[in-house]
Amino acid sequence: MAYYPDLSTHFRQRKVLNVGWLDGKHGFETARPAKWMIERLWVFCRYSILAAGGFHECDLADCPGPYKKVRENYGRGKRPTIREILEADALDRELLESGPLARLSRARKAEMSAMFDEALNRAQRGFAKITLAVRPQTGEQLELGYAEIRVLGERGKMYAAPNMLYHYVTVHHYKPPDEFVRALKNGPCPPNDEYLVRLAMVGFPLRLAKVYQAMWKENVPGFF
User: Most exposed: 38, 104, 145, 199, by fewest CB within 10 Å?
Assistant: First the structure.
């Protein structure tokens, strides 16, 4: 997953601020989360939005999980050799620097480079590690790393975070920015109608908001 500094501008939506886009190369403040924060983040991740193309793994140092292993699917073909894996990775990175992808912004290139890193690690291992969120009260589990959450703050602010944020906060004790924590505590929360109305008011496509509303009424967790 690409790294973005906290409260930096989201590269796709200039009025949205990034929170919790961590990686193993950059440090972050830590603090034990309050119980209300864990529960609130669970709800946001239970109703994640904006599914990604695939999923991301946690690459923070000494990550204990929890996660589940999923074997790489090669269809009817056999698993490629390490040499073939490295050659394919080198081709992908060459296209990013000198092919059609070279026209992408620096932020977008960084995101794709991070995706290549994850794909290479998975291919070399032969399996993926899907991070799991565990709700303390019930033991209920959610798969993470495939979508984002949006938290609504004061004066029209909106914060974008990966749904991996639950894992970062509960397992690695990542401390989000204070203004994000206030927004998380005081702002509307899915699946309430107020949340979707406010989401649309700050520029989120109304058509998508209605799709999520229908999904949530059917009690569909997350977005696949």
Answer: 104
CA-to-CA separations, 218 to 42, 47, 213, 221, in angstroms, rounded: 18, 12, 9, 9
d(CA 115, CA 155): 34
Q: What is the CA radius of gyration of the chain?
A: 18
Q: Provide the β-strand partners of residue 133.
A: 142
- What is the pTM assigned to this prediction? 0.77
Half-sphere exposure of 94 (CA within 13 A, CB side): 6
Q: Which of 138, 142, 140, 139 is nearest to 167 (CA)?
A: 142
The answer to whether 10 and 16 are in contact (CB under 8 A) is: yes
The Cα–Cα gap between 202 and 218 comes to 25
Contact between 89 and 120 (Cβ < 8 Å): yes
Whether the CB-CB separation of 164 and 131 falls below 8 Å is answered with: yes
What would the pLDDT profile of 76-116 be if each residue is shown by its tens digit?
Answer: 667 777 787 787 778 877 877 877 777 777 777 777 777 77
Q: What is the DSSP-derived secondary structure letter of residue 218?
A: T
